[in-house]
Every structure is written in structure tokens, then in C-alpha cells.
Design brief:
With about 290 residues, the chain is an alpha/beta fold. Helix content is about 50%, strand content about 15%. The chain has 2 domains: about 1-85, Chemotaxis receptor methyltransferase CheR, N-terminal domain (Chemotaxis Receptor Methyltransferase Cher, domain 1, Orthogonal Bundle), CATH 1.10.155; about 95-290, Vaccinia Virus protein VP39 (Rossmann fold), CATH 3.40.50.150. The protein has helices spanning about 1-15, 20-35, 45-60, 65-70, 75-85, 95-115, 130-150, 165-170, 185-190, 205-210, 245-255; strands at about 120-125, 155-160, 175, 190-195, 200-205, 210-215, 230-235, 260-265, 280, 285-290. The protein has a 7-stranded mixed sheet. Strands 3-5-4 form a 3-stranded antiparallel sheet. Helix 2 (about 20-35) runs parallel beside helix 4 (about 65-70), helix 3 crosses helix 5 and helix 6 crosses helix 7. It is globular, with a radius of gyration of 22 Å. This is Chemotaxis protein methyltransferase.
Length: about 290
């Protein structure tokens, strides 16, 4: 019997600690309150598996210790927790029709108007993940500025909760295979190919970095920026939220957009039944009503 007990203990050490009912209930409530992410019972194994890596990184022996850490200092671990339980899937020029609309219609109109009025142009990538979205926006923006000869003050704010994602975005260095959605012409102009130890990687051009401010932000907490933004990109983010959280978030986005401002959502997201403040004007493209 002693041998069986030792064998079971060894297996537990290999597999990692398990998440009991009370610990999972605590984590569900904590994640919902601080991140707006609703975790169903079916996510239990996923949460356990992903957070076992955090336990190892922190040198914690079990989930009880991890829950105690969260209670002691919620903010210190919040970004790592959110990053562990969510999936940052992104790509350069993902959902290309959004960038085509910007390039073809919106940016020329905005830049012409703001050149006359002296207003600034601001875009917000809310949930920028590892940076592909804001850098894609920067390429389109700079090219539009050059085509029109505009001197408008134009910048992009990029925010995310995940420390790892933000670190990648700030570094702006990507494996060459991540540039699959970038045209050859843009690859040559906007990326610097690595050599030697950096072979197989490319870094974004300094001109793109100059247009993008990358900052940590929890969408459920207070926002330091006042706006207004001409457009907000919040794509493939609210899929994790329940209906009340989505409704509150869209109300807050609305407050930072002028009449006629644009909200871009992900391909599986919609404002249907959540906000009357916007009208659908394209594929997951919404405009603030007057």
C-alpha cells in the first residue's frame, strides 16, 4: 500500500497540482471581477493546465498558494493571469477589409478635414496583443499621410493587459513567418531583416514605432485617456466577456468617440442587442450615430 501511495504522489508531481472546487470558484469570481472574463465549468481543465505553468514560474506548490497570492496583491499578478487564460491570436492585416476601408475611404477623409481644422487624428488599438494590429495601422496611416501630403498630428494608442504581449509589441521583432499577411512591398519598406543571431526575424521600422504608443491597460478599470478617438479597434477581445460587461464596455467606447467615429470589432463579434448608439456600416464596422 505504501508503494502505491508513493507512486500516486510521484504522478501528481509530474502532472502538477490539481484545482479543487473552492479554488476554481475563487478564480472564476476573481477573473470575472478584475478582467470581465466569464469562465464556465468547461474551462476548468484549461485553467488548471495553463496556471500550472504560473505556479512553477512563481515557485508555488499548489493552487491554494496561488489564490492567496491573488488575494494579497491582485494587481501584481493580474496581467499574467489574464494572459495565461486567454489566447492572443493576431496577425498583420488580419481582417484585411478593415484596413482597406481605412486606406480607401476613412483616412483620406479624416486627413483632409483635420488638415483644414488643425485637429489631431487618434486611433486606439484596444487589446493590441503582440502588436501586429497597431503596426499594421501605422503602415496604412503613414502611407496615407504621404499620399495626401498631410502634416496632421496622427498617432496610435495600443493597449493590452498581458505583460508578455506588451513586451513583444514593444520589441517589435517577429519571426519572418509572422509577416505572411504583409505584401512584399510593405515588407521591404517597413521591416528590417535580422542577420547573424537574428536571422529569421524582422523588426519593425523606427517610423512605425514613432507613431505607436504601447501601454498597459485593463479595459475594466479606469482609463487615463480622455479621447476623442476617430476610431477604436477592439477586435476578438469581447468574445471573452458576458453580455453586461460587453454593454458597459461599448458605452465607454461610445463616450470616447465623436459623432461619426468608428468602432471595429472582430469577425465573430457584434453590437446586436448591446448598443443603439452605433449603426452597422460594414463587416463588423460600426459608426457612432448623431
Amino acid at each position: 500500500m505504501a508503494g502505491n501511495a508513493l507512486a500516486e504522489d510521484a504522478l501528481r508531481q509530474i502532472a502538477g497540482p490539481t484545482l479543487n472546487d473552492a479554488e476554481f470558484a475563487f478564480l472564476r469570481e476573481f477573473v470575472y471581477r478584475h478582467c470581465g472574463i466569464a469562465l464556465g465549468e468547461q474551462k476548468r481543465q484549461l485553467v488548471q493546465g495553463r496556471l500550472q505553468r504560473r505556479l512553477r514560474a512563481l515557485g508555488l506548490k499548489d493552487f491554494s498558494a496561488y489564490c492567496a497570492l491573488l488575494q494579497q496583491d491582485p494587481e501584481a499578478e493580474l496581467g499574467e493571469l489574464a494572459s495565461a487564460i486567454s489566447t492572443n491570436v493576431t496577425a498583420f492585416f488580419r481582417e484585411a477589409h478593415h484596413f482597406e476601408l481605412l486606406e480607401r475611404e476613412l483616412l483620406p477623409r479624416w486627413l483632409e478635414h483635420k488638415q483644414r481644422t488643425g485637429e489631431r487624428l487618434r486611433l486606439w488599438s484596444a487589446g493590441c496583443a503582440t502588436g501586429e494590429e497597431p503596426y499594421s495601422l501605422a503602415m496604412v496611416l503613414i502611407e496615407a499621410l504621404e499620399r495626401t501630403g498631410s502634416t496632421v498630428d496622427a498617432k496610435i494608442l495600443a493597449t493590452d493587459l498581458s505583460p508578455q504581449a506588451l513586451a513583444t509589441a514593444r520589441a517589435g521583432v517577429y519571426p519572418l513567418e509572422r509577416l505572411a499577411g504583409v505584401s512584399e512591398e510593405r515588407r521591404r519598406r517597413w521591416f528590417l531583416r535580422g542577420e547573424g543571431a537574428n536571422e529569421g526575424y524582422a523588426s519593425v521600422h523606427p517610423k512605425l514605432r514613432e507613431r505607436v504608443s504601447i501601454l498597459p491597460l485593463n479595459l475594466l478599470h479606469e482609463w487615463p485617456m480622455q479621447g476623442p478617438f476617430d476610431a477604436i479597434f477592439c477586435r476578438n477581445v469581447v468574445i471573452y466577456f458576458d453580455q453586461p460587461t460587453k454593454r458597459r464596455l461599448f458605452e465607454r467606447f461610445c463616450a470616447l468617440l465623436p459623432v461619426g467615429g468608428y468602432l471595429f470589432l472582430g469577425h465573430s463579434e457584434s453590437l446586436h442587442g448591446l448598443s443603439e448608439a452605433f449603426e452597422l456600416v460594414g463587416r463588423t464596422v460600426y459608426r457612432k450615430r448623431g
